[in-house]
Amino acid sequence: MIGQRPERPSTPAPAPRRLPGPEAWRSPLRGPWLTSVLGSLLVPAIGILLVTGFIAHWAYHPTLPNNASVDPAYDISPPFQFSAAWPFWSYAVNQGVHVTLGLMTLPLVLAKLWSVMPRLFERPAWRSLAALLERLSLLLLVGSMLVEFATGILNIDDAGSPGVNFFVVHYYGAWVFGSAFVLHALVKLPTVRRAYRERGVLKPLRDGLGETRPEPHVAGGLAPADPATPTLTRRGLLAMVGGAALTIFAVQVGESIGGPLRRFALLAPRGRVFGTGPNDFPITNTAASRGITTDMTTDHWRLTLVGQRTVSLDRAALLAMPQATHTLSITCTEGWTTTQHWTGVPLRALARLVDASPDAVLSVLSLDQAAVGQTDVSFSQAQFTDPRALLALRVNGEDISLDHGYPARVILPNIPGSQNVKWAREMRFAAP
Ligand SMILES: Nc1nc2c(c(=O)[nH]1)N[C@H]1C(S)=C(S)[C@@H](COP(=O)(O)O)O[C@H]1N2
Ligand SMILES: [Mo]
User: Fold this and answer.
1) Does 126 or 168 have the greater pLDDT score?
2) Which residues have CB less than 5 Å away from ligand 2 (the ion)?
3) Which amino acid residue places its CA nearest to atom 22 of ligand 1?
4) Residue 207: which of 18, 350, 28 has the closest Cα?
5) How remote is the CA of residue 106 from the centroid of ligand 2, in Å?
6) Residue 63 to residues 50, 70, 418, Cα–Cα distance (Å)
7) Are strands 377-379 and 361-366 parallel, antiparallel or unpaired?
């Protein structure tokens, strides 16, 4: 019962309903030292999330045709590339760190919010213009942080909300959250340094329950005026947060690594059958879900290649060209990875076949009409001339199944999973 005072016979008029003030939060663990420790742990975590997040965004090559998720006019995309010198799993590591660390950071974020909870209940809401501005900046910080975590988790869950474009919200949200976070860390630096100077960086972690004393109360500060008896040590609280993070790691990391470890990913969808034998690895969108029928992919199917000349090839003609086999990963934005052995025609051989102009970028179009503009993808010159970039016809020594993109799909090292276009129908090599 929030703030409802029991009626007593001596007070006939019921007391007005009020929210509790900061004094209602009495945990003896709360105080500037605890908040400083939680905040200090957040700095590297959020830093890594921001860096890996922006790398993942740039990996889309958003300045090429078809690839932009946000308006290119507002997209600050540095020319970051995973070149042919990077191992094929580089993007998978980046994405795995982003998603896994993002989930692991959640308990820390909740603990940090818990530690500053009394602030939310301060009345009046501001005492001065400076205090009002500080509150507004915190609203921006906490609000954008919740947006980033909520959209990230909903996306992993494949539960995008209608009308909300994950890429747009998560990208702009990252700029707001990143800026607010850096500003907040700088503003709080003196407070953190004072807390460490007064109490030691790690010293309070040595206290057993008997020695756990509240931090000194200061008016308007985080330490409670009327602390309750401790029931948990500070190291106990940090162990709880760390334990929660490690548990999330244990049940998520198998998704990001894939292969046999996937069985330990308890949070992943289970009991799904993706295909038989060599084709038994994860599928997001089945042929049926995309309206692809066997009829569209057999006798009538041709791949149209457009460069300075145009060539149309059936699957037999593609199989007659020199084939290459490479181990490559598909890493979906949602956080899962699958690594398989793909065989097919190197994209640079197809570029040569149609005399692609030297400044050409490659656009791949799919039979998949359910998502025109989403499945049409462009690759830079550096990407499609990477010797590992394939038009895959076979996987693990067998024809790729219809669900995996039969008759042909593109697969390149270090690109976002969604760009490995299945059911390719046309490839255009043209200046952007
Ligand atoms: N034509 C087409 N290609 C596609 C997709 C699709 O829906 N249609 N899904 C993409 C996504 S989101 C991913 S992660 C990869 C791998 O998905 P898959 O396992 O369903 O093949 O394929 C990509 N290629
Ligand atoms: Mo995906």
Assistant:
1) 168
2) 284, 332, 417-418
3) 418
4) 28
5) 23
6) 20, 10, 17
7) antiparallel
Is residue 333 within 8 Å of residue 396, measured between CB atoms? no
Mean confidence (pLDDT) of the chain: 90
Three-state DSSP class for residue 339: strand
Ligand 1 atom closest to 338 (CA): 19
Domains along the chain with CATH numbers: 22-260 (no CATH), 277-430 (3.90.420.10)
Angle between helices 32-58 and 90-115 (to 10 degrees): 150
* pTM for the whole structure: 0.91
How do strand 424-430 and strand 303-306 relate by DSSP bridges? parallel
Query: Of all atoms in ligand 1, which is nearest to the CA of residue 292?
Result: 1
- 269 CA → ligand 2 middle, Å: 14
Q: Classify each residue of 243-275 as buried b or exposed e, where b means 16 or more C-beta atoms within 10 Å of its C-beta.
A: ebbeebeeebbbbbbbeeebeebeebeeeeeeb
Ligand 2 centroid–CA 117 distance in Å is 37
Mean pLDDT of 204-211: 96
The alpha helices in 323-370, defined as continuous H runs, are 347-353
Higher-confidence residue: 276 or 405? 405
Q: DSSP assignment, residue 431?
A: -
- Report d(CA 112, CA 421) in Å as an integer: 42
pLDDT in tens, 349-392: 999 999 999 999 999 999 987 554 456 899 999 999 999 999 99
CB 222 within 8 A of CB 35: yes
Residue nearest atom 16 in ligand 1 by C-alpha distance: 417
C-alpha torsion angle, residues 150, 152, 156, 157 (rounded to 10): 20
Q: Distance from the CA of 285 to the center of ligand 2, in angstroms? A: 8
Q: What would the pLDDT profile of 240-278 be if each residue is shown by its tens digit?
A: 999 999 999 999 998 888 888 887 888 776 656 677 788
